[in-house]
Design brief:
alpha+beta; 4 strands; 173 residues; four-stranded antiparallel β-sheet; single chain
Length: 173
């Protein structure tokens, strides 16, 4: 061994038997560490799908699947249900509307806008008309405050007029 290694080893051995002190960061990591016997608080689920709890609060969730398996439609249901408490078989467990970050790595800006107008807003509009009328949230770039026929037509456009082939959710009012 070289002389520097011997000095380092001697310094370490000099501390043998001393109590190890943890930095505040290491103490926090130790408190947050998950072990097999640690008591965990119950999970707070944000939604129920077919009456089964799903999407716990404070969790990062990724939706994956094969092409055309319904990932975008499920995401559309979730986003719509954040403002409207019930969308098809999905129920929001929380009483107040939710704020979420929707990040779709497979969609262009135009496709995302099409999904917003022709799926999410249609799902919300259909549900609010069936339950109790209330104003829809203001989405960036989409005017939902007016009820004129152009907005209605864009929300209820059949697939041949700009939809993605998913079919009509409802007939125009």
């Amino acid at each position: 061994m070289d002389q520097d290694t011997m000095k380092h080893l001697d310094a370490e051995l000099a501390h043998a038997g001393e109590e190890t002190t943890l930095s505040p960061l290491m103490q926090q990591l130790e408190r947050l560490r998950i072990t097999p016997d640690r008591e965990l608080p119950p999970m707070d689920f944000l939604f129920r799908l077919f009456d089964k709890p799903c999407f716990p609060r404070h969790e990062l969730v990724g939706i994956t699947g094969k092409a055309k398996s319904g990932k975008t439609f499920l995401t559309s249901m979730l986003i719509a249900c954040c403002q409207t408490s019930d969308i098809l078989a999905l129920h929001r467990s929380q009483p107040l509307p939710l704020r979420v970050l929707w990040y779709d790595t497979e969609q262009s800006d135009e496709s995302t806008q099409d999904i917003l107008k022709n799926r999410i807003l249609r799902l919300q509009t259909q549900q609010t008309q069936q339950t109790h009328p209330r104003p829809l949230p203001e989405w960036r770039g989409v005017d939902t405050s007016s009820a004129d026929t152009s907005t209605s037509k864009s929300i209820y456009a059949p697939p041949s007029q700009g939809g993605d082939g998913g079919g009509s959710l409802s007939t125009p009012p």
